[in-house]
């Protein structure tokens, strides 16, 4: 008896409302098509558990975002490896949004018509193929040559950049011999493969997040669904941080780790010619996505609705359940006007429309949603914030490398350990403030304005945290002049140095950098063995005071000590900007009609992709290219930039960020002004009485007075009659 009495009330509450669901689940999921009386037999496998689906989907989105963010962590390495400009690499980084944006609109059309878990699994497989395809350029290209001689012939490699009088003619001939039609075709093929892979990456990611969220919301308990989605988003937000961490590890390895030359290499990760194993990260993340995709082919199209709340929330939610059900019951009784508004809702119309009808209806509903001023301003503010985030995520590692002379691995480590975690903290803090303080639209707008203002203030010192470029022999730093090589001093005229070679050396006494040892007039090379690494020096340099020796590699930045304060300000600004994420999202949810919320959120993400995540990397890359003072040439075309004007780079990169932050601040200020105006209008309507309403109240009171007098008169007559009856009986 005690065994049955304890779970009895709970079992009755869970089983009675869901008889139909129980019968349906029992016939589908139990042997013989009969419903099982034991609730534990309703879910015979782990694939009928929504908790397991949340676990699998968290891992999948984590792996997917790790892959899509990995290219941003290795963007400067890909530029050096394949001779790309920042504009081209920015376009490459943004190209996965093209495939995603082109198909994301149709997700609202298909909805629950398809087998969502299997479609998620197919999308994950496509993401895996895209990751593998991104590594193909490494395998079809020749081994990386950090100068213009074959790495198989190491003695010639040692002498490639020296000042040798006997090699005047072959220097230019070797570079011309490497330029052929096959080389150019292969370069175009490599770039085309990477763009195709990025497009497939975007297409594969289309069904993963929307279908996963809707699947969780459909089959989780109503009280548990927000918790599951919170766990999903919390785990997912770690993906970008892990992508930078993976990039930091992979870029420490040499690019040709799978085909190292016999004699090894004499490069360190601090050498500007160093190229890390960028392709290895794509293989690792593709393998993670493939493993995470396997369970989705075993989940059912529809699983039993979760019936039990989580225990630690049961007491608090038991009180709030009746109003929800009451609201659901009352929502079923709608006025004809509300039903007409519902008919215009695209989310409800979609299941009854064909694809052609859906395409025709969508622009009309889009325009209707964009007419809402609060919605439009919130979306514009988020577009500005997203443009800032897209530019930073793509080119901040490269900016840190150039501005502070740090390695690509260390730059990724700083971003993955400082900026991304603080941005996550900012999003969580914004959500806590909205929930705990129960902020309304007015206070949400004030919080967004305050966060954007503080972010803008923290960005101001960044303009002054840097230093000018050190002197590079023979290169003009004036942006108005044609960048390139000038006439070198007479100390190296007899060397006949190749114009397209790049092997920098630094004269530390004068902080002058030379493009090659040949341009410094060096005629010999010495390798100094150190226990952990070997250091290369060049001697007998006619252009250096005392003849050298000069170490290989670029001169270190004079302000490399400012990299940590710079990153702290960047990270704090990212945290403050992230605080506005949840309040601005609530402004959309509370500002549009109830039936338009789903579509409004979809339009919001679509516009953010089209107006921010697609063009922003290209805009930032183009701005960075304008600060280049010396371009490498590859077969007569402009390839990767070797040297930038650091002051110009800092002012334009930070200035572009500053511009977008001002735009976001202006939008939030307009939102707050509109909300205050609306609040004033509501107050005036509440304080000023309506004359027509007053007359109706007076008329109703006038009618009530004679009725009340009649009732009182009847009561008096009734009492008199009773008194007369008593007297008569006596």
UniProtKB/TrEMBL annotation:
Record-linked InterPro entries: Kazal_dom (IPR002350), MFS_trans_sf (IPR036259), OATP (IPR004156)
SUPFAM superfamilies: MFS general substrate transporter
Kazal-like domain mapped to chain residues: 485-545
Keywords of this entry: Cell membrane, Disulfide bond, Ion transport, Membrane, Transmembrane, Transmembrane helix, Transport
Region (Disordered): 1-40, 318-341
One Pfam family per UniProt: OATP
Gene3D superfamilies the record matches: MFS general substrate transporter like domains
Membrane topology value: Multi-pass membrane protein
Subcellular location: Cell membrane
Spans traversing the lipid bilayer: 91-112, 119-140, 185-206, 227-255, 275-299, 374-396, 408-434, 446-466, 562-589, 610-633, 653-675
Assigned protein family: Belongs to the organo anion transporter (TC 2.A.60) family.
Name of protein: Solute carrier organic anion transporter family member
Organism: Odocoileus virginianus (White-tailed deer)
């Amino acid at each position: 008896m005690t065994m049955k009495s304890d779970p009895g009330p709970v079992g009755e509450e869970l089983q009675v409302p869901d008889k139909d669901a129980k019968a349906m689940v029992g016939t589908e999921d139990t042997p013989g098509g009969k419903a099982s009386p034991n609730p534990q037999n309703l879910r015979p496998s782990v694939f009928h558990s929504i908790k397991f689906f949340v676990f699998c989907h968290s891992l999948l989105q984590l792996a997917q975002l790790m892959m899509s963010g990995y290219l941003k962590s290795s963007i400067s390495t890909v530029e050096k490896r394949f001779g790309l400009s920042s504009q081209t690499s920015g376009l490459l980084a943004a190209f996965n949004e093209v495939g995603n944006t082109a198909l994301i609109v149709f997700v609202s059309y298909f909805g629950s018509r398809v087998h969502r878990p299997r479609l998620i699994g197919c999308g994950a497989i496509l993401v895996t193929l895209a990751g593998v395809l991104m590594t193909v350029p490494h395998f079809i290209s020749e081994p990386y040559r950090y100068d213009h001689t074959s790495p198989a012939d190491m003695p010639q490699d040692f002498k490639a950049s020296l000042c040798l009088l006997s090699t005047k003619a072959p220097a230019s001939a070797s570079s011309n011999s490497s330029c052929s039609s096959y080389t150019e075709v292969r370069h175009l093929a490599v770039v085309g493969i990477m763009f195709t892979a990025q497009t497939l990456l975007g297409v594969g990611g289309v069904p993963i997040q929307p279908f996963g969220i809707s699947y969780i919301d459909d089959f989780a308990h109503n009280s548990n669904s927000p918790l599951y989605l919170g766990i999903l988003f919390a785990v997912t937000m770690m993906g970008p941080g892990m992508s930078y961490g993976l990039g930091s590890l992979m870029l420490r390895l040499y690019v040709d780790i799978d085909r190292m030359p016999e004699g090894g290499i004499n490069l360190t990760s601090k050498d500007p010619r160093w190229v890390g194993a960028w392709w290895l990260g794509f293989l690792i993340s593709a393998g993670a996505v493939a493993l995470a995709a396997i369970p989705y082919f075993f989940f059912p199209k529809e699983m039993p609705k979760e019936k039990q709340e989580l225990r630690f929330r049961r007491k608090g939610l038991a009180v709030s359940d009746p109003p929800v059900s009451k609201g659901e019951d009352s929502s079923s009784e709608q006025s004809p006007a509300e039903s007409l508004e519902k008919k215009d809702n695209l989310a409800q119309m979609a299941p009854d429309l064909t694809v052609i009808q859906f395409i025709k209806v969508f622009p009309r509903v889009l325009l209707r949603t964009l007419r809402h001023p609060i919605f439009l301003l919130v979306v514009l503010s988020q577009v500005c914030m997203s443009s800032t985030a897209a530019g930073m995520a793509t080119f901040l590692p490269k900016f840190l490398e150039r501005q502070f002379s740090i390695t690509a691995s260390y730059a990724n480590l700083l971003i993955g350990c400082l900026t991304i975690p603080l941005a996550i903290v900012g999003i969580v803090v914004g959500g806590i403030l909205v929930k705990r303080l129960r902020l309304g639209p007015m206070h949400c707008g004030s919080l967004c304005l305050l966060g954007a203002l503080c972010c803008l203030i923290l960005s101001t010192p960044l303009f002054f945290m840097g230093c000018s470029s050190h002197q590079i022999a023979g290169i003009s730093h004036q942006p108005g002049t044609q960048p390139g090589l000038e006439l070198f001093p007479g100390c190296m005229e007899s060397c006949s140095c190749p114009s397209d070679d790049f092997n920098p050396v630094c004269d530390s006494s004068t902080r002058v950098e030379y493009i090659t040892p040949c341009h410094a007039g060096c005629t010999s090379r010495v390798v100094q063995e150190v226990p952990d690494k070997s250091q290369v020096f060049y001697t007998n340099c006619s252009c250096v005071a005392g003849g050298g020796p000069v170490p290989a590699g670029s001169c270190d930045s004079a302000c490399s000590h400012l990299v940590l304060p710079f990153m702290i300000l960047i990270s704090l600004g990212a945290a403050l900007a992230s605080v506005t994420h949840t309040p601005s999202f609530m402004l959309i949810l509370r500002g549009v009609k109830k039936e338009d919320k789903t579509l409004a959120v979809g339009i919001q993400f679509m516009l953010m992709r089209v107006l921010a995540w697609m063009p922003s990397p290209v805009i930032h890359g183009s701005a960075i290219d304008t600060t280049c003072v010396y371009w490498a040439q590859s077969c007569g075309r402009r390839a990767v930039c070797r040297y930038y004007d650091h002051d110009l780079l800092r002012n334009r990169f930070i200035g572009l960020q500053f511009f977008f932050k001002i735009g976001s601040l202006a939008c939030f200020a307009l939102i707050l002004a509109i909300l205050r105006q609306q609040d004033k209008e509501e107050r005036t309507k509440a304080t000023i009485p309506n004359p027509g309403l007053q007359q109706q109240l007076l008329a109703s009171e006038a009618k009530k007075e004679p009725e009340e007098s009649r009732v009182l008169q009847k009561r008096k007559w009734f009492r008199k009659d009773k008194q007369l009856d008593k007297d008569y009986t006596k």
